[in-house]
Amino acid sequence: MNLLGFSSAVFLLGSLLALLLARRPAAARAVSLGAALLGSVGALAAAVFCLAGGDCGALTIAGPLGPGGFSFRLDPFSALFTGLISAVSLPASLYGLSHASEHDDRAGALGAFYNLFLLSMSLVPAADNAFCFLFAWEAMTLTSFFLVTLDHEDPEARKAGRFYFVMSQGGTALIFAAFLLLWRASGSWEFSAFREAGRLMAPGMKSAVFLLALGGFGLKAGVVPLHLWLPYAHPAAPSHVSGLMSGVMIKTGVYGIMLTALSLLGGGPAWWGALVLGLGAASSLLGVLYALMQHDLKRLLAYHSVENIGIILMGVGAGMIFSSFGKPDLALLAFAAGLYHTVNHAVFKCLLFLGAGSVLHAVGTRNMEKMGGLIKTMPFTALGFLAGSMAISALPPFNGFMSEWLTFQSLLAGFGLESAPARLATLTAAACLALTGGLAAACFVKAFGITFLAMPRSQAAAEAREAPAPELWAMAALAGACLLLGILPGPVLTVLKQGLGSLLASPAGLPSPVLAASGPFGSVQPSLLLALLGVLGLGAWLAMTLIAGPARVRRGPTWACGLPGLTPRMEYTATAFSKPIRLMFAFLYKPTREVRIERQDQPYFPGTIHYSTEIAHLIRERLYMPPVKTLLAGAHLIRRLQAGSVNLYLGYLCATLTLLLLFLIGRAR
Amino acid sequence: MKPGLAAAAVWAQPFVLLMLAPLVQGCVRKLKAVLQNRQGAGVLQPYWDLLKNLRKEEVVSETASPIMRFVPYAAFSATFLACFLVPVLLPASPLGFAGDMIALVYLLALPRFFMALGGLDAGSAFGGMGSSREMMISSAAEPALIAALFTAAVRAGSTGAAEAASAAAASAPAALGPGLALGFIALFLVALAECGRLPVDNPATHLELTMVHEAMILEHSGRSLALIELSSMLKLTLFLTLLANLFIPWGLASRTDPASAVFSAGIFGLKLGGLVLTLSVVENSTAKLRLFRVPDFLGIAFVLALLGLLSEGILRLGL
Predict the structure, then answer these.
(1) pTM value?
(2) The predicted structure's pLDDT at residue B21
(3) For residue B55, what is the nearest residue in chain A, using CA coordinates?
(4) Which B residues 91-110 touch A at CB under 8 Å?
(5) What is the DSSP string of A18-46?
(6) Which end of chain A is more exposed for a tag (fewer CB within 10 A), N or C?
(7) pLDDT recorded at residue A246
(8) Which of A314, A544, A567, A588 to mutate to test the interface with B (most CBs of B within 10 A)?
């Protein structure tokens, strides 16, 4: 049976039925998400078969559907991405079963676009020619645009959607240009023809294709400075869609970069890798720095996607540097590190977005300053969010640690390169990765601590209810995956190397040992670390009980400087928590604050104090605003021509005609 | 030496560190007192303090969640596990194969993460302030720490702590160079910041607005406090051990046999004593930095470590 065809048919059927059942929201929701689950299982199975060395699924519809026909085919490398996308959409769809009821007034549209979104996303990596690729790519952008603007009455969502749509179209234009250059060289739209022609292109042309593709795909991935749309668009969608957008949709950008640079163009000079590495380092640092300043829980997570894409690109860039220096083993390790983080980020970011969605539903706001104490009312959601927070902060034994460890190992291997600039680049990137790790931990102490710990800061937070069962099961599955991916690096690496083998056309190497991962400088066995953590904690408890008997515990109020009773207003806020970092990086944030104290009669007892603080977004202001301002000024000038008077327009027509006639007469002479 | 005995000796090393940790703390306090013309408590006082706290009843905040009770165990087990990754007297560590120095850095991030959550959990402004400051300092310290450990790693061609230490010891006089010296200074500065010592944080203060680490753990009492204090002492000893074995390349036994272990124990004691003396002199002769000068301080550590790394590269591979 053709699994790829089966899953596509199920997705299409699901979206059709959702539209037909639009009048009955509950049925539309159940049917569309059921179809999404079934379709994802089909696509996942196709990917697994392909990676296991079996028959890779293909979906070809002959006919006049564009140049090159309508052809999708998996290979082990694209199966990695299709498999990841469908694996993560399983828990997201399960979560949607209860969470999507929030949007029951638009159940038909949500169900239809959700299924089409999954369909197009899982077909992007499978595309076999440029036409199909761009078709699936545009379908993915369009369907996600409609999901972002699902709440189209909300001006914020409309603005986010418009922003997303315009920037995405710019990115697609760049990809289109890259493909056109390849088409000119090969005379065909087939990727197989691109592969042959790409290798023979002149170096300058090759670099042009690479830069165009890096711009276009980097925009989708959310690479700094093309990330502006991401923190607006992702939070606006329903939370399970946000999870998919941040978790897997942006990974198609990583797929595109790797496909173009390594497969279609067959690798390039070292500066390509250095550029990707540098963009990765910049994205990771700026992503986490702006995330730290957010109090909107979902936007904070969206900025962390920028950070994690940066970490992924550090692995990819290091791999490109190694392969240009002719070190295939190190290149394989570095690419595997990047892909490992791709998988890990998909899992923990989806988990965090789902957790944030449940919190959002329970509290009714995305503002962290209105949350607090939720661990008491939503213990399971809190536990899931904690697992995700630890994973994204790269704390052992969760999965983020494993992939960052591998990235460190491959960056450190850059020390052995023959060129001093390459050494400096990889080592500086390693330092950036370390700083990013530390800042991410700070950010997630804030995100988890302010949201879930201490006392509720609003009435809604005090009355929050635990999320319904499907949501909890979805989070539990993802949290379990975070742990398993962290303690079983061997199977993951074996699968990733299998996929990379087909991309790099090199032998996949020996399968890795199940429990350990090793790099050129050392090895790590996280399962043993986990076991020992448990043993030592238990040992400490036993030893203390033996020495001093069972613990005696009394509950008492928190010390509040002797004041009677602690109130939530005395708690540390998210803004206060991130203040040291705001001042440490003041050169970047350029923070401004306004304090207004309204005094009543007595000078020593202020009435109300108003405090507001704002940071500057340097990239938007320095990089995007000047061209936009010039454009607007130009438009202003042109507007003077269009004064609205018919006589004036007739005058223009007359003047143009005269000029053209004069021109013709001039030529005739 | 029989293989069984050798393995036992290797596995005994982290427990030696655990036993030694309160003594190191006691010695630092005593030396500081002597330098300030005070009598000071005996060097064994930290042991009695731990025992006292262990026997006391614990008061847990009414607003706190179960996370608060979990914090001391997470802090202790992760810090102690990190001790299993470093060599102390012998050129091997019990779990060197399961975790290298990168894993060590991230294992030390685990206690901090949970202690910072514990600081927020009780809901008082002190805890939040301590957590926020501690996370700022540690995130600024992380690049310097990684870079300093990498100088040792590239010299040995391995990120394993035992491999790096024995490679340094094996090439003792030749290993001396700018890389080693710069790495040592960088790691020492990071140790001051990570362990909450002056001039970054004052371990002796409970003044509300200046404390960092102490503010974060303010709500812990009884055996929770004992366990957290023990892990802080252990962390200081661990950093001093790393400094002694990675950057002072003498004294580590070249083989795992009893005679060289006894010999290296003597040298290790001397090195540790020297470091403790340096630490107390530094703490006595500097004033606490303003909080927002700490990033500059750690920036210096990072630049020194990066220079050390580059000089290793230039000496080894040429420009």
Answers:
(1) 0.93
(2) 94
(3) A548
(4) 95, 97-103, 105-107, 109-110
(5) HHHTTTSHHHHHHHHHHHHHHHHHHHHHH
(6) C
(7) 92
(8) A544
Backbone angles phi, psi at B261, to 5 degrees: -65, -40
Bond preceding residue A397 cis, omega within 30 of 0: yes
CA distance B220 to chain A (A): 10
Contacts (Cβ under 8 Å, ≥6 apart) of A361: A99, A102, A239, A467
Distance CA A339, CA A246 (A): 16
Residue A361 and residue B103: Cα distance in Å, rounded? Answer: 37
Q: Is the peptide bond before B14 cis (omega within 30 degrees of 0)?
A: no
CB-based contact (8 Å) between A333 and chain B? no
User: Is beta strand A70-73 parallel, antiparallel or unpaired with respect to A58-61?
Assistant: antiparallel
B141 Cβ under 8 Å from any chain A Cβ:
yes
Query: Are A416 and B132 in contact (CB < 8 Å)?
Result: no
Chain-chain contact of B223 with A544 (C-beta, under 8 angstroms): yes
Residue A151 host element (H or E): none
Give dist(CA B205, CA B130) in Å, integer: 13
Residue to substitute from B150, B221, B230, interface A, most A β-carbons within 10 A: B150
What is the four-CA torsion angle of A593, A599, A604, A608, rounded to 10 degrees? Answer: -60
Residue ranges of E strands in A32-135: 58-61, 70-73
**Contacts A451 to B, Cβ<8 Å:** none
Of A22 and A318, which is predicted with more confidence? A318
What is the C-alpha to C-alpha distance for residues A288 and A286, in angstroms, rounded to an integer?
A: 6
Tell me how far apart the alpha carbons of residues A100 and A334 are, in angstroms, rounded to a whole number. 39
Residue B13's contacts (CB-CB under 8 Å, 6 or more residues apart) are: B83, B87, B88, B89, B90, B93, B94
A63 band by pLDDT with thresholds 50, 70 and 90? low
CB atoms B310 and A424 under 8 Å: yes
pLDDT tens-digit readout, A343-370: 999 999 999 999 999 999 999 888 998 9
Closest to A424 in 3D by CA, of A233, A278, A219: A278
Inter-residue contact A292 to A443 (CB < 8 Å): yes
**Does any CB of chain B come closer than 8 Å to the CB of residue A588?**
no
CB contact under 8 A, A453 and B131: no
Which of A453, A559, A581 comes nearest B136 by C-beta? A581
Three-class SS string for A408-440?
Answer: HHHHHHHHHCCCHHHHHHHHHHHHHHHHHHHHH
Phi, psi of B202 (to 5 degrees): -105, 115
Residue numbers of B between 172 and 211 with CB closer than 8 Å to A: 208
Least reliable range by pLDDT among A105-114, A240-249, B127-136, B162-171:
B162-171
Tell me how crowded residue A465 is: count the other CB atoms within 10 A of its CB.
10
Which tokens sit at A516?
Answer: 């350990």
For B77, the token pair is 């087990």
Of the candidates A68, A80, A71, which has an alpha carbon nearest to the alpha carbon of residue A43? A80
Burial class (CB in 10 A: 0-12, 13-18, 19+), B223: buried
Strand A70-73 relative to strand A523-524: parallel, antiparallel, unpaired?
A: unpaired
Instruction: Let me know the angle formed at the C-alpha of A404 by A375 and A383, rounded to the nearest 5 degrees.
Output: 10
Q: Smallest Cα–Cα separation from A117: which of A92, A94, A151, A153?
A: A92
Rounded to a whole number, what is the distance in Å from the CA of B27 to chain A's nearest CA? 25
**In the structure encoding, which two tokens stand for residue A154, read together?**
């909300």
Specify burial of residue A236 (Cβ count, 10 A radius: 0-12, 13-18, 19+).
Answer: buried
Q: Out of A404, A548, A556, name the one closest to residue B59 (CB).
A: A556
Check pLDDT > 60 for residue A319. Answer: yes
Q: What is the mean pLDDT of chain A?
A: 89
HSE of A607 in the Cβ direction (CA atoms, 13 Å)?
A: 5
